[in-house]
Each structure stands twice: as structure tokens, then as C-alpha cells.
Write a structure and sequence with these properties.
Blueprint lengths: L4 E14 L2 E14 L3 E5 L6 H9 L7 E10 L2 E2 L5 H10 L1 E4 L13 H13 L3 H14 L5 H4 L9 H13 L5 E5 L7 H18 L2 E6 L2 H7 L2 E6 L2 E7 H6 L4 H8 L40 H5 L5 E4 L2 E3 L4 H8 L8
Parallel strand pairs: 3-8, 3-9, 6-7, 7-8
Antiparallel strand pairs: 1-2, 1-4, 4-5, 9-10, 10-12, 11-12
Helix pairs in contact: 3-4, 3-6, 4-6
Bound molecules: adenosine-5'-triphosphate.
The site of adenosine-5'-triphosphate has 16 residues, from strand 1, strand 2 and helix 1.
């Protein structure tokens, strides 16, 4: 049978040098992205979402990196063993990345058309004329009106939402198998955010492209993802299909994230739930379960031993000693219902 797994991250750890000594930003994480699926990677700032995505593309400065452990396989090939020359080919060709801030991938000095065409000329060996024609089509695909006119415009002449579309067009130029989207809609206002998410969903269906969607926003997850991994302080604390996660979140951290989503039902305005405290620094990782300092249910077992990520059922895994009791005690989450 054909392996439907596009990306497999297997026991990945990423260790960095810092002024205060060596830190492990991502600790023994395993997950996969199927062909054509949208996987959400969720967590607060500092949980290791970006380090995970950057590891897939090996984007770190060599001087910061101590080493990787584990494997990252793209259709069976271990990317961590690839020479950098091969990684340069994979970036943009097989895996593309889009970021929160389009200015990191768009050059203010060149026209929009030139920048989309350049990606094609660079990776696909097509003529300049052909590349320009395809650039127009790609910009049309991303919903940019009158792309034949827009190709002559410079980035400063277009809005933030349009820049985001241009960045997506550049990322899609070579029809990558995997798109890594790191908070692609965070900086946009709500209506534009919805349009960009809608666009990504359409492109995912049309091109059968796997997407790894990195976000701190569970609303984005509910909107477009099929499965999700929840990260906390460099580890995966819960993994589930989206239906299960929203209907029955298991980890107290996931439950906290769910409870902090504002909801509009009913007359009464309720105070928003806030998970107490903040993500500890990597130099100060708690002994035992990493969530203990912020967990209202932590007891001596939690303080002394970190639980494994274990399957609760066929679609959901969780890393918590007491999740069954907590779910029973707290009951269903109204906030979690989509
Ligand atoms: N090059 C580096 N050297 C040392 N530490 C790093 C490096 N890159 C990231 N880190 C640390 O790794 C941890 C995880 O960072 P990461 O950027 O992955 O978090 P994140 O979940 O993506 O948060 P955000 O949403 O703010 O980007 C942080 O504590 C960060 O300081």
C-alpha cells in the first residue's frame, strides 16, 4: 500500500546554544502530515511551533544550533541527513513557507510580477515570458483582481491582505507538496483573515497540497484544520482530529486554551478565562510535567514525573496523569463547542 504520509517528524529534538547554556527548544516530538491534509500546530508564544517548522526546512543559523536528534522525513527521505545543497532545492520546490509578515519574503524593490516570476525561473527553468504569464495566473488564483495590471505594481502600492496573497502566490509557484504557514493571518484584520483562510482551503483542495498551519488561534484551527497538535514548552501535550479536540479537549492546557476563546452566546457577558502564569523559559524547565506551575490540578506525581503522550482513543493522544478525572470534574466545555 502507498504511504500516504507526506511529512513524518519522528522523535525530533532541537538543541541550541544560548548565553545561559544549552537549551532544548523542542523535545522528542513526533507527528505527521498526510498528503492533502491541513495539520494545525497550536500553542502560546514560546511553545516551539516556529522552531519545529524551521527545523523541517533547516533554517537555523549554524552557530546557534547544537544539534538535532530524531528524523524529519519528506516522503521517506530524511531531511536532517540531506546536504544543504539538496535542502536549497527542496525549499520552494517541494516545501514552501509563508510567514506572518509578508515583508520577510517580498522585496520592496521589485514589482510583484517579477517576484512571482522569479520563483518560477529559479526553480522551474522556464523562459521569462512564460514565467510572467504563469505569474499572472498564480496571482489570479490567489484572488488578486486584474493581475495583468497588478504585476507592474510595487509592494508599497498594495494593501497588507494583497501582499499576503502575493506571498502565497510566490510560495505556490512551484506547486510544493507541503506548505508551512506560520501565523499567516495574525497581522490581518478579521475579514481579510477569513478570505486568506478560505483561499488556503481552496488551494489545498485544488492542488492536494499538505499544509502545516502554525497558529496560536484556535479559531483558525476550527476553520480549516483536519488534525491538530497542541504544543507546550517544546513538547506535544495533545494530538487529535479537530472534531475530537473541540468536542472533548483532554489536556488541562488545551482546555484552558478553549476556555479563553470569547463566545457570543447568551445575554450575559462572561469574563474571559485566562490561563494563569506564562510559559517558563527554556533555562527553567519544570521537573515532572512541564505544565505543573500553571495547572490547578497538579499534585506530587505531576511535580515528580513527566507523563508520556499516550493514546486515549483512536483519534486522540494526551500527556497528562489526571486528564480523565479533570474531564469528569469540569464536565463538557461549552466554549469548546463549535
Ligand atoms: N536560535 C535560537 N536560539 C536559542 N533559542 C531559540 C532559538 N530559536 C528559538 N529559540 C527558543 O525556542 C523557544 C521556542 O520558540 P518558538 O519561536 O518556536 O516559539 P513559538 O511557539 O513559535 O512562539 P511564537 O508564536 O512567539 O513564534 C523559545 O523559548 C525561543 O526563545
Amino acid at each position: 500500500m502507498e504511504n500516504s504520509k507526506l511529512l513524518e517528524v519522528d522523535h525530533l529534538s532541537v538543541h541550541f546554544h544560548t548565553e545561559r547554556g544549552e537549551v532544548t527548544a523542542v523535545q522528542d516530538i513526533s507527528f505527521h502530515v498526510e498528503k492533502g491534509e491541513i495539520l494545525g500546530v497550536v500553542g502560546e508564544s514560546g511553545c516551539g511551533k516556529s522552531v519545529t517548522s524551521q527545523a523541517v526546512l533547516r533554517l537555523f543559523d549554524e552557530k546557534d544550533l547544537v544539534r538535532y536528534d530524531g528524523e524529519i522525513r519528506l516522503q521517506g527521505r530524511d531531511l536532517l541527513k540531506n546536504p544543504m545543497s539538496e535542502m536549497n532545492h527542496i525549499r520552494g520546490n517541494e516545501i514552501s513557507m509563508i510567514f506572518q509578515d509578508p515583508s520577510s519574503s517580498i522585496n520592496p524593490l521589485y514589482t510583484i510580477g517579477y517576484q512571482v516570476a522569479e520563483a518560477l525561473i529559479l526553480h522551474q527553468n522556464v523562459s521569462k515570458k512564460e514565467a510572467m504569464e504563469r505569474a499572472v495566473e498564480l496571482l489570479r488564483l490567489t484572488g488578486i483582481p486584474s493581475p495583468e495590471k497588478r504585476i507592474h505594481e510595487y509592494p508599497h502600492e498594495i494593501s497588507g491582505g494583497m501582499k499576503q496573497r502575493v506571498m502565497i502566490a510566490i510560495a505556490l509557484a512551484c506547486e510544493p507538496k507541503l506548505l508551512i504557514a506560520d501565523e499567516p493571518t495574525t497581522a490581518l484584520d478579521v475579514t481579510i483573515q477569513a478570505q486568506i483562510l478560505d483561499l488556503m482551503l481552496k488551494l489545498n483542495k485544488k492542488m492536494d497540497m499538505g499544509i502545516m498551519m502554525i497558529t496560536h488561534d484556535l479559531g483558525v484551527v476550527a476553520e480549516i484544520c483536519t488534525r491538530v497538535v497542541v504544543m507546550y514548552l517544546g513538547q506535544i501535550v495533545e494530538e487529535a482530529d479537530v472534531e475530537s479536540l473541540f468536542n472533548r479537549p483532554l489536556h488541562p492546557y488545551t482546555r484552558g486554551l478553549m476556555k479563553s476563546i470569547p463566545h457570543m452566546e447568551g445575554e450575559k457577558k462572561e469574563e474571559l478565562y485566562v490561563i494563569s502564569g506564562s510559559v517558563p523559559s527554556l533555562n527553567n524547565v519544570p521537573k515532572g510535567c512541564r505544565f505543573t506551575p500553571r495547572c490547578p490540578y497538579a499534585d506530587s506525581t505531576c511535580h515528580s514525573k513527566n507523563p508520556e503522550l499516550l493514546a486515549d482513543n483512536q483519534t486522540q493522544k494526551v500527556r497528562c496523569w489526571h486528564y480523565k478525572d479533570i474531564s469528569e470534574e469540569e464536565g463538557e466545555l461549552v466554549y469548546g463547542n463549535r
